[in-house]
Every structure is written in C-alpha cells, then in structure tokens.
Amino acid sequence: MGITSINPSTGKRIKTYDEMTPGEAEAAVSEAHNTWQVWWGTAFAERGGLMKKAADILRERRHELAHLMASEMGKPLEQRGAETEKCAWACDY
Amino acid sequence: MPWNFPLWSDLGPQARHDLRDALHEQVRASVERGASLLLGGEIPPGEGAYYPPTVLSDVKPGMPAYDEELFGPVAAIIAAKDDADAVRIANDTVFGLGGAVFTKDAARGESLARQLEAGATFVNRSVASDPRLPFGGIKESGYGRELGSYGIKEFVNIKTVYVK
Questions:
Q1: Whole-prediction pTM value?
Q2: What is the ipTM of this complex?
C-alpha cells in the first residue's frame, strides 16, 4: 500500500515509501534493543562527543533539511533555519 | 522550486489537507454557534492546504474555539472582567502544555503566569522550548518532562545501590 508524503503547498505527491513487513519491524526493534545494551555501558564523554558531531551534521545539512521541511510540511523559509538550529542547539546542550 | 509560496512568506500552508479542513470546521462551527468572524475564515482557492490568518471574537463555552485546541493561524478573543476572570477562563480547559501572558507590567504578568495551569508559562513572548529548561504538559497535555536536567531523568533509571 505504501506511505505517501504529500507537499501541502501544492497537493502533489512527493514520494511513496514501502511499509516494513512485520518481520522487518521486529528486526528493527531487536536491533535497537541490542544496540542499547552497548550504549548503556558507554561513558558520557564519548556520547557527548557524538551528540556534538550530530549538531555539526545538522548545521552542515541545513539547506537540504530546509528544502525537506518546505516540501514535506510547507514550513516558511525563516522558520526552517530556526528549526534546524534548535535541534542542533538541543544536541549541543 | 518544489513549493509554491514565495521565499518571503511567513505563513505557509497547514501541514496536511485534512488538518486544514478540520481547522476550518472548528472555525465554521464556532461561527454557527455565535462567534463573530473578524478576519479570514475562508478556504482559499488552489491546490495547497492553505488557511488564512483568522480572528474570532465573542467566543464562548460550547464553541470549538473555546473548548478545543485550534492548531493553526486562528485566534479566539474571549473577553474577561478582570485578572481573576482571565485566569479562570485560561484554566477552563483540559489542556495544560503552555500559556503566555502579554502585558506592559512584567510583575503583574509573572503573577498571572504563576496562576496558569500549564507546564510552562511565558510573559511577553510565545511559548517555546529551550534545551536548558524542562518542558512538558499537565492535565490532558501529557506526563513528564523533556529537556533540562529534569528531562534526562525520564530516560534513565534512578538506581539505588546499597552495600552493607
């Protein structure tokens, strides 16, 4: 059946995504759980470094993300930059 | 360009067509029950999920604009007799995520803000989250907090280890 993303400013379809099968969904949950067992024992210093890197990546990709926010949600230009910055700010914190 | 509003717009479309239609229905039903439509309130022609800035006044209990959340550019004006009445009206809702008070007197604003039943209250600015401060709702607006030092506690097990 698929999950369709529609551009709310034009009403046009952007892309249709295939749904995961129940098996794929279960595998994703299992993997998340197993990965969490590893993170559980990881020190804050290492996690902090990765969060800062995530903030850097968000800021680097701001234009691509702004484009996505406009086409998938209809977000106006000024607010897109602010939204990306807010996410990066949360990662920094 | 994949979107059809100009770069300088500060009001884009609603996020989905069904959300826009539900918002319009809340406006329409409120007007039908006696609210005055001061601005907007009409779905514009065209393919997008647009809704114009809309203002309703004479809003009373029994109208969606009073009882429900309006998730879009629709303002509901409800007159109050005094500060106590304003607080009573503001708290007359099952929701409690955030509230804001706009006033020239910041001290009076803070006093009012403290009486609002919400997880976060702002004086002279709109509700916004800040990673340094806890954010979350009360009543039917949710449980727990995110952000700040309170927020991280939702993601960890506060564990006691007792060694004798």
A1: 0.82
A2: 0.73
